[in-house]
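G., before I forget:
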Amino acid sequence: MKTTQQIHEYHLWNKLSKHRSLVSFNIELTARCNNNCHHCYINLPAGDTRAIEKELSRLEINRIADEAVELGALWCLLTGGEPLLRNDFSQIYLDLKKKGLLVSVFTNATLINTEIVQLFKQYPPRAVEVSVYGITAETYEEVTRKQGTFIAFQNGLKLLLDAGIKVRFKAMSLKSNYHEMQRIAEFCRSRSDDVFRFDPFLHLRYDLNEKRNKEIITQRLTPSQIIALERSDIERTDSVKKLCNQQQNATENTTASNLIFNCGIGKHDFTLGWDGTFRLCSALQHPECVYDLRKGNLKDAWLNFAPKVLNMRREPNSIDDCYNCRLVNLCSWCPAHSYLENGSLVTPIKDFCESAHARNKAFGVIDHQTSEHEEI
Amino acid sequence: MDIDLNTKYRITDDVVAREIEGELIIVPLTSGIGDLEDELFTLNETGRSIWAKLDGSHTLKQVIESLNQDFQDSSGSVEGDVVGFVKELIRMKMVITASDE
C-alpha cells in the first residue's frame, strides 16, 4: 500500500521528463549580500534601501509559491544574494516547507546562528549548499572584502556540521583564491560526502554594472590556470575528459532548428527573481525573456509566456557561431551568459571560448584539431 | 503494537500530502518521519483510500465499514489491510490518534 523510494530514483521523474511540467523553482530572496565578493554577479550592499524596497514581500512570495505548488512544483531552492540577510527568512522557509516543498538553501554560512540551526534541525532542508571562498582568513577576506567574515563563516559552518545538517560545498575559482583551490577542495571533501564542485567560469552581473563587471573579468583565471587546476583534481580531470568525448553529439540537434535555447531551460523549472521577475533560468536577464509576476501571474508566465521565449529563434547568419561549435560541452557559453557579456543572446564570449579550446587541447582524446572557423 | 478499532486516527501535521501527476506523494515536514533520509512516500490505490479516511473524525471500525462499502468487500480482508497499514503509519509517525491533539 505504501512504497518508499530514494529521491534520485523516484519513478515520478521519468513520468515528468516526458513532457514540459514544473518540477522545481529557485527563489532569489534578495539581491543583497553581507559580503562584497569580487566575482559575484548578484551582491548589492546589505543595506541597499532601494533594493530592500523592491524585494518581494513574504505575502508575494507565498502567493507565487502557492501557484508553483498548484502547477506541480516539488523542489524549491532559496538563494540570493545571501538569503539569510532577510529578517523573515525563517518564516518564508517554514511557509514553503508547509506547502509540501523540498527546500534547499544556498548560503555563505556567515549568518548561520543557533536559531537557524534549530529551525533546520526541526524542519530539515533538502540540502544546504555553502560557498567557500578560502580556508585562511587572508584568502577568504581577499575575496569577500569584508573583515571578520572568515570567522563568521567558520562559526556558521561549525554550527551546521555539529548539528548534523546536510551540507554540500561549492567554490568559485578566481585569481584571489587560485593559490588555495587545492586546499579548499580538501577542506570541503573532508567535511561532506556530497559532491564538491568548483567553477572557474565567472559570468557577468545580472545588474549589468560596468564597473563591477570589469572587476569580474579581472578575476577570471587564464586558460592555462584553469587547466592546471583541473589537472590537479582527479575527479575534475575525469569529468572534463568525459565532456571532451561527448563533444561530437553536443550540437547534433541544435543547429537545424535555429532555436536560441537548446539547453533545456524552462522545461521543468524557473527562477523567481528578488524583485518579482519570472525567468526561465537564473542568468537569463534579456528583457524579452523576463516576465513581471507583480503585474501578472505564474500560470500565465509558465503556460503562455515561457513557450514564446523557448520558441525564440536566431538568424542563421553564420556558421562561425557557438551553435555550430563541437566544444559547447566544454564551454560556459549560453545565450543568458552571452547577453550578460555582449548584450546579445547569440554572440561568443571570448574568454570562455579560449578556455574551451584550451581545455579541448589539454584533455581531448578524440580530436585535438579544431577547425579554423571555430576559433574566434 | 495494538490497534484499537474504536480509536479515531488522523494524519499528523508533520507531513504534507501532495498529488502530482496523479500520484499521492507524502512529504515529511519535520525530522524523524519515516525510516530513511532522502525518500519520498507514495501510496497505491488502497493506501490512498485508507489515507483519505484517516481524518480524526471516524473510528477505525467506521473506516473499515466505509471501505467495505466502497470496495463491496465482505471477505474481511479490508480489516487486515487497514490495521496493518495504520500500524505502519504509526510506526513511521505519520498517523496519530485524534486524542493526541
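Chain A touches chain B at residues 1-8, 10, 12, 15-16, 21, 69, 72, 74, 97-102, 121-124, 166 (CB under 8 Å). Chain A has two domains: 18-221+263-305, 223-260+316-376.

More on Monday.
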